[in-house]
Specification:
Layout (H helix, E strand, L loop, with lengths): L9 H5 L3 E6 L4 E4 L2 H6 L3 H4 L13 H12 L4 E9 L5 E11 L2 E8 L1 H46 L5 H31 L9 E3 L2 H14 L6 E6 L4 E3 L1 H19 L5 E7 L3 E9 L30 H11 L3 E6 L3 E9 L5
Parallel strand pairs: 7-9
Antiparallel strand pairs: 1-2, 1-5, 3-4, 4-5, 6-8, 9-10, 10-12, 11-12
Helix pairs in contact: 5-6, 6-9, 7-8, 8-9
Length: 351
């Protein structure tokens, strides 16, 4: 027998791999200390077993075939099976074994973690593939029919319709618009989860105040009687995505109305300090509990921790992603007087 496989050798004692000398009956004559380290069994305990006594039931037949190969004088390399730990769990082992006279010299490496890592990687890859398919379905299979519906409604609206027909066209158009917005929100969520981030189309915006006003006016139409106070001190031009910033403002104003009420004023402020662009939306109302504040920017949840009852509950999540896409951040502060969402982003100007 090779000297390094002698039980008294230093290699035998310090090896991290499980080493063993097995006889033709399947019993281990000698095992090294690594067996206790990896599997919890003492040398005396292991040597009282046949190799198959510690096997996972599903691996018995395959291992018997490998042992038959050894009996036939053939080496076995990189053979994997599961051995039972003394605590009842199983460890994956990768074996190399060669015949040596009337015994077999065996070594096994614990590959449990690498097997788990490989399985985890496969799971992540499959999840990524499914997410990509999901994005494709949303972006093409759902959006295209919806676009056709919207186009058909626009064409019908140009024709003379009865009062009932006009109302049905209006309702269908609004429903299609809401569905398009929901699909857009879910697409943004999916792309963010894929690591792609929010899509931005930066351009030179000379009048950012007008962009904000347009969005605020459109949002206000949905909430008759709401008072929205505005204060601007902006320069420009700015290099940004006006559509996305408008979406951010719309989401913040809608959130302020929902949680502040239409009978209380909402205040919007925007200013440029020369380095950063600051925009805030404040509403009066009850304070948001401090332990709920971290949840506000999570998908599908509101400040009270329940699922959103309006839309999908993605508005604040997407608003923060838009802020981060512009190199900024969106934060929230709430007390007994008011709740304020504040955007800070670099005031980038076209070069």
């Amino acid at each position: 027998m090779d000297g390094q496989f002698q039980p008294q050798s230093v290699f035998w004692k310090v090896s991290a791999d499980l080493l063993g000398v097995n006889d033709a009956t399947g019993r281990f004559r000698h095992t090294n200390p690594a067996w206790r380290t990896v599997l919890g069994w003492s040398a005396e305990e292991v040597e009282a077993f046949r190799y198959e006594d510690l096997l996972h039931p599903d691996d018995v037949d395959r291992t018997n075939e490998a042992f038959a190969a050894l009996l036939d004088g053939r080496p076995v390399m990189l053979f994997e099976n599961r051995y039972r730990h003394k605590d009842g769990s199983y460890r994956w082992l990768s074996w190399n074994a060669v015949p040596e006279g009337d015994v077999f010299i065996c070594s096994a490496r614990d590959v449990t973690q690498s097997k788990a890592d490989a399985a985890s990687l496969r799971t992540r890859e499959e999840e990524a593939r499914l997410r990509e398919q999901f994005v494709a379905v949303l972006g093409h299979d759902l959006r295209n029919p919806l676009t056709a519906v919207s186009a058909a409604m626009r064409l019908l609206s140009r024709e003379v319709q009865s009062e009932r027909g006009t109302e049905l066209i209006r309702m269908t158009t609004e429903a299609a618009d809401r569905m398009a917005a929901l699909i857009g929100d879910v697409l943004d969520l999916a792309r963010t989860r894929l690591g792609e981030g929010i899509e931005l189309a930066r351009q030179e915006v000379a009048d950012l105040e007008a962009v904000i006003d347009k969005v605020v006016d459109e949002t206000a139409l949905s909430y008759p009687g709401i008072t929205i106070e505005r204060s601007y001190d902006l320069g420009g031009p700015y290099l940004c995505d006006p559509g996305r910033l408008g979406q951010l403002v719309s989401n913040l104003v809608s959130n302020a109305v929902t949680h502040g009420g239409t009978d209380r004023p909402i205040r919007i402020e925007a200013r440029d300090d020369g380095t950063d662009l600051h925009l805030s939306v404040a509403n009066e109302g009850e304070a948001i509990p401090e332990d709920k504040l971290p949840l506000l920017f999570e998908p599908f949840a509101r400040g009270d921790g329940r699922a959103s009852q309006n839309g999908l509950g993605l508005g604040l999540f997407i608003a923060r992603q838009i802020a981060r896409g512009h190199g900024g951040e969106l934060t929230v502060a709430s007390d007994d007087d008011r709740t304020v969402f504040a955007l800070r982003m670099p005031a980038r100007h076209p070069s």
